[in-house]
């Protein structure tokens, strides 16, 4: 009986072992024996589109010209004819200064001039009489009825009278200049705009007294807003790549999605760091920026002074070019060309192409030669993995079996 039980237990153990072996074999076949689906490596497609290489800058908008209109005579502002935002034309009346002092100055100068002219008339009468006396004395001298001394005295009187008239004529010229100056000062009590533009600042009020003794006080400022200027900072790393005449676009904070065309007109030769120190340039640890000046038309005056502008300067621009993401290129060789791997989806063949690149803005690259529209280029990580696999003649190969390709 005991022997029979022992045999039964031994058989049971063998059955359990067989079941375990069968389970292990099934699992091994499932994981290692069944066919595996091929993993397609990630690729990027060569497409067509527009591409630009640009430089970024930021700055603010300014009026193309700002003219300060000042008072050239002292006095009280009697009338102010404009207000902030008004459009003015050249010659329009801006303000009037109390003209009483200037009017009195004109009258005084004219009176002085009239006095000088009256004195001249009196001297001219004296001259006529002196010349007549000289003529008679000369005739009597010939008849020995007058002495030589009488003739010399008469002649001297004529000469002195002529000299007095000459002096009076000079004084009359000075008096005429005084009248002109007084009239000019009187006209300056009516202040007019010297240019067309928009009033962007009014610095005085009616009743305010202005003094032009030391310097010309500013009454208003008139700006030309038809053409605006953007003064933008260009970094020293980019300034060598830009030049006047290049096209640019910019956006303002109020319309960040709308690009406005502009043109780079000039680049200031020195950075903002320049000073009046002995060396001419102040030392600084900060980045150096050069001011570029961009011109933009503003016929509707939608752009305003001091608006912030984000500027994009176009260095190169190509339309409908072959484009490939820059990340798929890798590093250029010594000849400047790139080697990329192209997958043929119909055959799983991978071939190596040499590619010539034009514009490369580090996001997209213009393909000048080596690829065609629709080609599938292995992403950089996938290309590295494919390169480590067995290659066929000519650097190409066939994509075989399962593999894990990373970007």
Automatic annotation (TrEMBL):
Residues 320-378 form the Multidrug resistance protein MdtA-like C-terminal permuted SH3 domain. One of its GO terms (biological process) is xenobiotic detoxification by transmembrane export across the plasma membrane. One of its GO terms (molecular function) is efflux transmembrane transporter activity. Residues 67-220 form the Multidrug resistance protein MdtA-like barrel-sandwich hybrid domain. Residues 113-187 form the Multidrug resistance protein MdtA-like alpha-helical hairpin domain. The chain crosses the membrane at residues 12-32. It comes from the Bacteria. Keywords: Cell inner membrane, Cell membrane, Coiled coil, Membrane, Transmembrane, Transmembrane helix, Transport. Its main location: membrane. It is found in: Cell membrane. Residues 227-315 form the Multidrug resistance protein MdtA-like beta-barrel domain. It holds the Pfam family HH_MFP_RND. GO terms for cellular component: cell envelope; efflux pump complex; extrinsic component of membrane; macrolide transmembrane transporter complex. PANTHER family: MULTIDRUG RESISTANCE PROTEIN MDTA (PTHR30469), SLR1207 PROTEIN (PTHR30469:SF33). Belongs to the membrane fusion protein (MFP) (TC 8.A.1) family. This is Efflux RND transporter periplasmic adaptor subunit. It comes from Paradevosia shaoguanensis.
């Amino acid at each position: 009986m005991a022997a029979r039980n022992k045999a039964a237990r031994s058989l049971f153990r063998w059955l359990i072992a067989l079941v375990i072996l069968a389970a292990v074999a099934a699992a091994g076949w499932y994981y290692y024996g069944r066919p595996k689906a091929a993993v397609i490596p990630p690729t990027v497609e060569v497409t067509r589109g527009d591409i630009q290489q640009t430089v970024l800058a930021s700055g603010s908008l300014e009026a193309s010209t700002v003219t300060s209109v000042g008072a050239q005579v002292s006095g009280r502002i009697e009338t102010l004819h404009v207000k902030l935002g008004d459009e003015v034309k050249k010659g329009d009346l801006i303000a009037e200064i109390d003209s009483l002092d200037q009017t009195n100055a004109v009258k005084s100068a004219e009176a002085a001039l009239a006095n000088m002219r009256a004195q001249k008339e009196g001297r001219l009468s004296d001259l006529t009489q002196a010349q007549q006396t000289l003529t008679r004395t000369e005739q009597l001298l010939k008849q020995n009825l007058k002495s030589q001394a009488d003739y010399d005295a008469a002649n001297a009187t004529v000469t002195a009278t002529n000299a007095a008239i000459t002096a009076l004529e000079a004084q009359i010229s000075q008096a005429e200049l005084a009248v002109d100056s007084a009239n000019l000062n009187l006209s300056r009590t009516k202040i007019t705009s010297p240019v067309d533009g928009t009033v962007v600042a009014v610095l005085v009020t009616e009743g305010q007294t202005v003094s032009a003794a030391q310097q010309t006080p500013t009454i208003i400022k008139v700006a030309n807003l038809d053409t605006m200027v953007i003064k933008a900072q260009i970094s020293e790393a980019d300034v060598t790549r830009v030049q006047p005449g290049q096209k640019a676009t910019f956006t303002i904070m109020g319309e960040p999605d709308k690009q406005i065309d502009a043109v780079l007109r000039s680049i200031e030769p020195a950075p903002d760091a320049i000073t009046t120190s002995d060396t001419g340039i102040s030392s600084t640890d900060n980045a150096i920026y050069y001011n570029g000046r961009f011109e933009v038309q503003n016929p509707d005056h939608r752009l305003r002074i001091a608006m912030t502008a984000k500027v994009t300067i176009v260095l190169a621009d190509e339309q409908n070019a072959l484009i490939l993401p820059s990340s798929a290129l890798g590093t250029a060789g010594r000849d400047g060309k790139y080697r990329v791997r192209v997958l043929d989806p119909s055959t799983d063949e991978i071939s190596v192409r040499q590619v010539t690149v034009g514009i490369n803005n580090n996001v997209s690259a213009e393909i000048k030669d080596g690829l065609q529209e629709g080609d599938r280029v292995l992403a950089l990580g996938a290309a590295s993995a494919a390169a480590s696999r067995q290659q066929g003649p000519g650097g190409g190969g066939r994509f075989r079996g399962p593999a894990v390709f990373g970007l």
